[in-house]
Amino acid sequence: MIFYTTKHYERNHIIMYKIYHILFYNTMIITAVIALFTTDCATICSTKLKVGATT
């Protein structure tokens, strides 16, 4: 039983480590993507507003 729980804990620890590793290394990429998406959205929204205002 102790052996099983130890193995179980190790597996969970590895999974958590992998998740944190991915999150840590992708934070900058995710932030950049979000920033690009928001700027694109703002540009599209302002363009639509300008078009809507003119027509």
Give the overall form: rod-shaped
Q: Which spans of ≥5 residues are poorly predicted at pLDDT below 50?
A: none
Helix content: over 70%
Mean pLDDT: 76
Q: Could you describe the largest sheet, including whether it forms a barrel?
A: none
**Approximately how much beta-strand content do the residues carry?**
under 5%
Q: What's the β-strand tally?
A: 0
Order of helices and strands: H
Give the structure's gist in a few sentences.
The protein is 96% helix and 0% strand. The protein is mainly α and 55 residues long. Keywords: Membrane, Transmembrane, Transmembrane helix.
Outline the structure in words.
Keywords: Membrane, Transmembrane, Transmembrane helix. The chain has 55 residues and is an all-alpha fold. The chain has one domain. 96% of the residues lie in helices and 0% in strands. The protein is built from one helix and no strands. The chain is rod-shaped and about 70 Å long.
